[in-house]
Design a protein that fits this description.
Strand content: 5-15%
Number of strands: 7
Shape: globular
Number of domains: 2
Strand order of the largest sheet: 2-4-3
Number of helices: 8
Length: about 300
């Protein structure tokens, strides 16, 4: 079932009511705001002053009133600025004064409740009341000036008491750029140091490669000038020098370790089943064939480790 939307007359009354009970403030007073939900919201005041303009369970057909979401959307499209805040509420302030949510709250910034005790603001309220009264007549509602003044007076007093200590508190929330981390935005100190280290390493690596290539080129030129015989001797000498005695010792040690591991594996597996080497490949032979063990011993004794 499609949810019915508010009638144009209800939306017009809602906008006129919000403009009458609230007052815009300069940008320098951006810390002043009006909650979008809760006890101090303008929608809560609309339901008290003009019940016909707000959605209720009794409205089953005809002109529907505005819901809270529709009310806030109408104001957003007509000059009311919406902001998001995650401020920590003082101990004496209840969460219901702002909204039903205790973590994320939305407000109308650069707005405050109109003060009917101020003569200038009272005059502005009376002029706005004349327009509001004409629009409310289309909904069959009558709005008295005294009721509108009382509505503003009660909420302005609670609003002023709540926000008196928040004159320097920032109301907007911005994401801070992460610096000094991989993938973060901005160039933090750690990022700059990391970039400098990478640059120095790349320079060192390039210089090292350049020196190696230049030395290799010099050796090739010397070998070509000396002739083919010198080139052969140089190659043999370089290969022998590259391996060295340590390389030969390391090879012999590896062969000994390989022999020990092979013998150990043979002793372990011989308890369950016999193994044999035929044609250089490992093959398993059953326990009932002693010929397999004889072949294995012959192959093992004749095997040369080269």
């Amino acid at each position: 079932m499609v949810r019915p939307s508010a009638s144009p007359a209800s939306k017009a009354v809602a906008l006129a009511f919000a403009q009458a009970v609230s007052r815009a403030v300069p940008a320098s007073l951006s810390h002043l705001f009006i909650p979008r939900k809760g006890r101090l919201s303008m929608y809560d005041a609309l339901r008290d002053c003009i019940p016909a303009a707000a959605r209720s369970a009794e409205q089953t057909f005809g002109g529907y009133g505005v819901r809270e979401v529709e009310f806030n959307k109408v104001l957003e499209h007509n000059g009311f600025t919406k902001i998001r805040d995650r401020c920590i509420l003082p101990d004496e302030v209840e969460a219901t004064d702002f909204s039903r949510s205790s973590s994320a709250r939305y407000f109308f910034s650069n707005r405050r409740w109109r003060n009917p005790d101020d003569p200038h603001e009272l005059q502005e309220l009376r002029q706005a009341w004349l327009k509001l009264r004409q629009l409310a007549c289309r909904l069959g509602a009558d709005v008295s000036l005294e009721a509108l003044e009382q509505c503003c007076r009660e909420r302005y007093g609670a609003w002023a008491e709540m926000t008196v200590n928040w004159s320097k508190a920032p109301r907007r929330v911005y994401r801070k750029a992460r610096t000094g981390r991989k993938g973060g935005r901005g160039d933090g100190e750690e990022c700059r140091q990391g970039k400098a280290g990478v640059a120095s390493l790349s320079q060192q690596g390039s210089s090292h490669v350049h020196s190696l290539s230049s030395s290799a080129g010099k050796e090739v030129e010397e070998i070509e000038e000396a002739g083919p015989s010198a080139a052969g001797e140089s190659m043999v000498g370089s290969s022998t020098g590259f391996a060295g005695d340590e390389q030969l010792d390391e090879t012999s040690d590896k062969e000994e370790l390989l022999d020990e591991s092979w013998e150990q594996s043979f002793d372990d597996e011989n308890e369950e089943e016999d193994i044999s080497l035929e044609g250089g490949a490992l093959q398993r032979v059953g326990r009932e064939t002693p010929q397999g063990l004889n072949d294995l011993e012959r192959d093992w004794g004749s095997r040369s480790w080269t």
